[in-house]
Design a protein that fits this description.
Layout (H helix, E strand, L loop, with lengths): L13 H10 L3 E5 L4 E4 L6 E7 L2 E6 L5 E7 L4 E3 H4 L8 E5 L3 E7 H5 L7 H28 L4 H16 L3 E3 L4 H7 L4 H13 L3 E4 L2 E4 L1
Antiparallel strand pairs: 1-8, 2-7, 3-6, 3-8, 4-5, 4-7, 9-11, 10-11
């Protein structure tokens, strides 16, 4: 298993990475698009590293609707301790969007004090805290989007965030239009009508999954 491209193992060489995977009781699983990778309440002592593919953290509502809480790409880290705090009732899950390879490893093995005072272990713990900080930032940005009152305001807020992230007024959407509707908590048909109006008013232009703020 090679997970050196994961942000969790930034600064760790290949030999140390292999040793640490054995220490963390790591194992690999493969998932197909549409499969559930992890449901809250399962494997509470494990975290996952997305080696390839993409996934999404979804919140399930009692009325059958779903909300996209986070989009995950290659290198993302997730798990009960990282993603599901407050969702202990089966109301959140990680769903595979594209075929995925995932490494699961013991969370307590990562966070416990290393008996050998290993510098690489300390680096992984540092990386883990940085990832948690990034998740907090993503959550704050998501709250900013959801705080907007109208679908147009939500779209413009999210598009401005993406433009800032990419340093360009033209940027790719990180997921499909259906998932975008889930992300901003809007009806897909209503969102598509609003995007059409925004194009007609020269607020945006779109080409495939690429959007330009005009």
């Amino acid at each position: 298993m090679d997970c050196r491209d994961s942000a969790l193992f930034t600064g760790v060489d290949e030999a140390s990475c292999e040793n640490m995977l054995r220490c963390f009781s790591a194992y690999e699983q493969r998932f197909s698009a549409g499969q559930t990778i992890l449901t809250c309440g399962q494997q509470q002592d494990m975290i996952g590293v997305l080696l390839s593919g993409s996934a999404a953290l979804l919140r399930l509502h009692a009325d059958g609707n779903r909300t996209v809480l986070e989009s995950m790409d290659e290198g993302s880290v997730f798990g009960e301790e990282l993603a599901f705090t407050g969702f202990r009732d089966g109301s959140a899950l990680i769903e595979c969007r594209e075929d995925c390879r995932v490494i699961f490893m013991r969370y307590d093995q990562i966070t416990k004090r290393c008996e050998n005072a290993c510098a690489c272990h300390s680096q992984v713990v540092t990386n883990l805290f940085q990832l948690l900080s990034k998740k907090s930032l993503h959550l704050s940005r998501r709250i900013e989007v959801l705080a907007c009152r109208s679908i147009r305001e939500k779209l413009l807020c999210f598009f401005e965030q993406l433009a800032d992230e990419h340093g360009s007024r033209t940027f790719p959407l990180p997921f499909s239009l259906s998932m975008l509707a889930d992300y901003i908590s809007a009806d897909r048909s209503a969102m598509m009508r609003e995007m059409r109006k925004m194009r007609e008013e020269d607020l945006i232009s779109t080409e495939g999954r690429s959007v330009t703020l005009l």
